[in-house]
TrEMBL record:
Its EC number is 2.5.1.145. This is Phosphatidylglycerol--prolipoprotein diacylglyceryl transferase. Its main location: membrane. It is found in: Cell membrane. Residues 317-333 have a biased composition (Low complexity). Residues 291-333 are annotated as: Disordered. Catalyzes the transfer of the diacylglyceryl group from phosphatidylglycerol to the sulfhydryl group of the N-terminal cysteine of a prolipoprotein, the first step in the formation of mature lipoproteins. Pathway: Protein modification; lipoprotein biosynthesis (diacylglyceryl transfer). Pfam families: LGT (PF01790). Keywords: Cell membrane, Glycosyltransferase, Lipoprotein, Membrane, Transferase, Transmembrane, Transmembrane helix. InterPro entries: Lgt (IPR001640). The lineage of its organism: Bacteria, Bacillati, Actinomycetota, Actinomycetes, Micrococcales. One of its GO terms (biological process) is lipoprotein biosynthetic process. HAMAP family: Lgt.
């Protein structure tokens, strides 16, 4: 008997949207559209945050091109290499390796590929790598939450069998359905757990950033720790974990633990190296010169975000200028 509060999987017809255009028939994958929505929201939010910190309006597009392309490639390659038996077997259609619209994109591979893209864009634009990472962190976490809706539509990303009333209904014909389990078995809705975890993470990180003035990569470090902590648990109860393991622990769990440790190390190192305010998001000598305050092309409304930090930054700059003038006058005498 199905629990009354259990979560039904959406109809298979939701996985694509048929479109007839110019005599041609197209099936637009819903998963791809959901990912696109997440990317757009993340881009707009990141642009607003970066521009408020002195970045050139529209510079986020330079990062978007590199990060999205390399992020998608990294996500797919990571998934394929950690689930090789899903793509490489006698009679397999090898073109399915490239069918990212059918799902199967690993976030850790996306982070690696995206980080490479941000590094390349940072060299081109002069924006600090970690300054951009700080700006993108909350938008990235929100985009990942949105993307999990695509997993729900695709009937994927679910955990071990459960008797909890909010268990997820999965059809027994699903290719990932465990052998031997009776039809009607409910599973842990990992996609929902991660959505909740990520949304809560956005709220927590923004609150800490405002209170503690996180810059110099500390916000991104907080993202790595938060996401790594949550994923380390979710991956441990996933029904289709990586086919590789070390010391009995799935590879993806190790990846999540590594993300947490990397975030912790980054936070400690940057806290010691840069205890003060970050006055510019640009590398020395690569600053964007502007004759008037920038208006973000994505945001025409005023916003009070970071006002306290901006005031503190202006005060510090004024103090430094006064000190320099006093020193110069003393030398002239």
């Amino acid at each position: 008997m199905i629990a009354p509060l259990s979560i039904p999987s959406p109809p298979l017809s939701w996985q694509s949207i048929p479109i007839d255009l110019f005599g041609l028939h197209w099936d637009i994958r819903t998963y791809a559209l959901i990912i696109l929505v997440g990317i757009i929201i993340c881009t707009i939010w990141t642009s607003r945050r970066l521009t408020k910190r002195g970045g050139e309006p529209g510079v986020v597009i330079d990062f978007l091109i590199w990060a999205v392309v390399l992020g998608l490639i990294g996500a797919r390659l990571y998934h394929v290499f950690t689930h090789p038996h899903d793509y490489f077997y006698p009679g397999a259609n090898l073109w399915n390796v490239f069918a990212i619209w059918e799902g199967g994109n690993a976030i850790f591979g996306s982070l690696l590929g995206g980080a490479l893209g941000v590094f390349i864009a940072s060299k081109q634009t002069g924006v600090r790598f970690l300054s951009f990472a700080d700006a993108v962190a909350p938008g990235l976490l929100l985009a990942q939450a949105i993307g999990r809706l695509g997993n729900y539509v695709n009937h994927e990303l679910y955990g071990l069998p459960t008797n909890l009333p909010w268990g997820l209904q999965i059809e027994s014909t699903n290719t990932a359905y465990p052998t031997g389990l009776p039809s009607g078995t409910l599973f842990q809705p990992l996609f929902l757990y991660e959505i909740i975890w990520n949304v809560v993470g956005v709220i927590v990180l923004l609150a800490l950033e405002k209170k503690l003035h996180w810059r110099w990569g500390k916000m991104f470090a907080g993202y790595l720790m938060w996401y790594g902590l949550g994923r380390s648990y979710l991956e441990s109860i996933r029904i289709d974990p990586s086919e590789y393991s070390f010391l009995g622990i799935p590879f993806n769990v190790w990846a999540a633990i590594l993300a947490f440790v990397l975030g912790l190390v980054l936070f400690i190192v940057q806290s010691r190296r840069h205890p003060g305010l970050e006055l510019s998001v640009y590398l020395p000598g690569r600053e964007w010169n502007r004759s008037e305050p920038a208006v973000d092309s994505f945001d025409t409304d005023s916003d009070d975000e970071d006002n306290d930090e901006d005031d503190a930054s202006e005060t510090l700059e004024s103090t430094q200028a006064d000190a320099a003038a006093t020193s110069s006058a003393a030398e002239s005498r």
